[in-house]
């Protein structure tokens, strides 16, 4: 094996990159492993950044404007929330219709039973 004369290259990530990675991993329903694989970093590194972010060692620059990707994420999140609300409403309507259908079937059955009883008399 060849002997390495120079030290291995260590990657330096910008504070902004770390913050964006952490924020992506904090989105509900997204796993740290998936974000790490997408960004081609080790999941342990992302977990460490998340810890540093919670401790305040990594801070987002508040002066930066929202990027197009962040705006797109916010739109997607609001769209999902709207769809979830609509889904909930539709499920309630479906339950109500099922109850109404059961009630009508019961009433119809009572009508059939009462007509059979009056025919027997």
From TrEMBL:
<dbReference type="Pfam" id="PF01527">
    <property type="entry name" value="HTH_Tnp_1"/>
</dbReference>
<keyword id="KW-0175">Coiled coil</keyword>
<dbReference type="GO" id="GO:0003677">
    <property type="term" value="F:DNA binding"/>
</dbReference>
<comment type="similarity">
    <text>Belongs to the transposase 8 family.</text>
</comment>
<dbReference type="GO" id="GO:0006313">
    <property type="term" value="P:DNA transposition"/>
</dbReference>
<feature type="coiled-coil region">
    <location>
        <begin position="66"/>
        <end position="100"/>
    </location>
</feature>
<protein>
    <recommendedName>
        <fullName>Transposase</fullName>
    </recommendedName>
</protein>
<dbReference type="InterPro" id="IPR002514">
    <property type="entry name" value="Transposase_8"/>
</dbReference>
<dbReference type="GO" id="GO:0004803">
    <property type="term" value="F:transposase activity"/>
</dbReference>
<dbReference type="InterPro" id="IPR009057">
    <property type="entry name" value="Homeodomain-like_sf"/>
</dbReference>
């Amino acid at each position: 094996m060849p002997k390495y004369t120079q030290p291995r290259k260590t990657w330096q990530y910008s504070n902004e990159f770390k913050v964006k990675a952490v924020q992506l991993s904090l989105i509900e329903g997204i796993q740290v492993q998936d974000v790490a694989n997408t960004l081609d970093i080790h999941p342990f590194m992302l977990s460490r950044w998340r810890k540093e972010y919670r401790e305040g060692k990594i801070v987002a620059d508040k002066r930066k404007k929202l990027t197009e990707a962040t705006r797109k994420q916010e739109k997607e999140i609001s769209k999902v929330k709207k769809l979830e609300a609509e889904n909930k409403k539709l499920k309630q309507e479906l339950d109500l219709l099922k109850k109404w259908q059961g009630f009508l079937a019961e009433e119809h059955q009572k009508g059939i039973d009462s007509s059979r009883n009056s025919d027997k008399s």
